[in-house]
Amino acid sequence: MVKIGLYGASGKMAQSIISCLKDEKDATLSVAFSQKNEVENLSSELLTNDFAKFFEACDVIIDFSQKEATVALLNYARTNPKPLVIGTTGLNDDEKNLLHLASGTMPILYATNMSLGVAVLNKIARIASKVLREFDIEIVEQHHRHKKDAPSGTAMTLAGCVAEARDLNLKDVLVTGRAGMVGARGKDEIAVMALRGGDVVGRHTVGFYNDGEFIELNHTATSRATFSKGAIKAAIWLKDQSSGLYSIDDSLGLDD
After folding, report:
1. Is 103 exposed, middle or buried (0-12, 13-18, 19+ CB in 10 A)?
2. pLDDT surpasses 90 at 80
3. What average pLDDT does the segment 207-214 reach?
């Protein structure tokens, strides 16, 4: 039985993970980290705000917090190695570099989306990008009104996949908004647009558009449990891995 430590226990994703762990046969929630004295659906015995106690009480940590909290977790873990599954989005280049540094002494699985469906979508989008080289690529993502970062980490991962498939540097071709007289669309542009509203869990569309035809690949998440179950599965897998930085593809056995 894998002992899971849940970091950022009061968040919506954490609450979903708590619920999913109740039915999990191979893992259990052994400790939860939160700065709050009380967290919904958790007994006080499982709660702590002490890193040392938190790390000692679990085999692997799942983190769906805010990026400042993730940085604090990584900095502590660098001198107290522990397998980490991190799903926090909105990380900048410096924060991603910290991920790489920390993975030198522990296994870390970082993914902007933990669902099997999105992992497969990335694969399909990469293939389509290579084959449909003359098609324009536009990505649209939609989330609930409370999501703080935009575009979503999942959309940016998708954009990175299709850009790499065409041997393009995403930073050179990325467009995240259009307004006014912006001129005709550039040949290599990859646009990522964000919609926010209501309680939408997550919807991503990768469109390939050409004269006379277009293809749209869609993934819609209807429940956070999709991501929670993926994160738990990843944590069980990661526990026995050697140091290094892993992706969700690694845990799912999706070969390139």
Report:
1. buried
2. yes
3. 98
Residues with active-site annotation: 143, 147
CA distance 112 to 86: 8
What's the mean pLDDT in 85-91? 91
| H-only helix segments in 147-255 | 153-165, 170-173, 225-238, 248-252
Cis preceding-peptide flag for 151 (omega within 30 of 0)? yes
pLDDT at 182 over 60: yes
Report the alpha-carbon distance of residue 226 to residue 135 in Å, rounded.
31
Task: Please say if the pLDDT value at position 89 is more than 70.
Answer: yes
Report how far residue 164's alpha carbon sits from residue 170's, in angstroms, rounded to the nearest whole number: 8
Highest mean pLDDT out of 91-95, 114-118, 217-221: 217-221
Which of 20-56 are b and which e, b meaning 16 or more Cβ less than 10 Å from the residue's Cβ? bbeebeebebbbbbbeeeebeebeeebbbeebeebbe
Residue 234: per-residue pLDDT: 95
Owner of token pair 């769906």: 64
Secondary structure letter of residue 243 according to DSSP: S
